[in-house]
Design brief:
alpha+beta; 6-stranded mixed β-sheet; 26% strand; globular
Length: 499
Amino acid sequence: MYTDILINATTYENRIALVENGTLLEFHTERFSEEGLIGNIYLGRVVRVLPGIDAAFVDIGLARTGFLYVDDIIVPAQGGLNQQSFQPVDGVENGKKHTNRPINELLKENQPILVQIAKEPIGTKGARLTCNITIPCRNLVYMPLTDHIGISRKIENEGVRNQLKEKIEKLRPSGAGFIIRTVAENISSDELEADMEFLLLLWDEILSKSTKGKVPSLIYKDLDIILRAVRDFFTENIHELVVDNREVYNQLLTYAKTFAPHLQRKIIYYDGDAPLFESYGIEVDINSALDKKVWLRSGGYIIIEPTEALTVIDVNTGRYVGKNDLAETIFKTNMEAVKEIAYQLRLRNIGGIIIIDFIDMDDEQDREDLYNAFKKAMQDDKSKVNILKLSEFGLVQMTRKRLSENLIQTMCEPCFYCGGDGFIKSSRTICYEIFRKLTKDARKIECATAALKVHPNVADLLRNEEAVHVDQLEQATGKRFTITSVPDMHIKRYEIIWK
């Protein structure tokens, strides 16, 4: 089994694909008109403190104010913004805050505050902010305001974990927090020290800018999506990193030379005639990830329906009729859906509350097997998930940590026909509206004929299935109606011209 990272870099958009054995696992895109904000650090101004919900709104210079919850607040002593003045409120220990102080004692309106974006603006909601700043590099994540050492859960060897912790303890300044990332499992003390020195200098620079910057202003911008992908995904386990832009290719070689020289050989420049994503056969997969209906190999299917509050996924047997009995058919369909749902959640970056309506099963053991299979299928997901057991109605309720917009929100917009409702008036409904309008106007207008300009679908219905009603209307009104098809007319619109 091998995994490739594919990077399609253009002047207007960068696209990143994580491909395993030819199958698209993850897809990320960043458009220069809509650059990502997670990880950016801002010097903001508190514009409103809301004790009723223990939160505050902070102006950071974006279109919408950011949202700062009380548990994410760390304020500097005496209102200063230098490194020595930052002190945790009632102490921050092991990454957790212990305070019962109300938010109006911690923050005041117009107060300057250093914050980091933890979740991007989604829909009508502003960015989620935190004062508990983290700064990642390839091997470490620096937490300057938290006295804590963490080690990636994917480093499972207890001896290795203890050795890494001892190395960090010897090197880190007093009170500084660090998380050791998965790629640092076999790192030397010299490499750790170099990364640590880089992060400490970067934090000093951030603090220096914050004391001089205007309020609100951007103090630190995180890496673009390409370098973030290399930092977070590019490990020894990656087969190849393939990029189709010469300038970006050279940039990645320089980055790898500095932070991961042993991986330089895996960076490949693609200059084939066919576009990179088409060459690897994943362009179709990206487009399919926008569809509501996803077919299963057996002939069953799932429907993925995003809403404002949550995402609903429905499982159906579809064309699959099974071989033996109904219970077996339902169980096999559900089990096949489990793997596809786990895959689609990751591919589409679906987060928040998710409700899955599996086909109901009477056998308790089948329900338990399904739940365990779903938990196992979600193990490879990098986002934090919480899955509840099947309810009596066959529903699985779960949450998946949402940091940014999902694929639909990134690549689509509300339908300009239906306004995002997902429905428009049917052609027959439009026909009957026209009938009512003609009946009403015929009483007041002396003209003998009326020309109807309508969408082709409506015209077809009026000339065929509804022709008998058109004839009846002509007899009842004593008028003559002519029907004209207008291809570029909106299906809901029509025009009646009396002559």
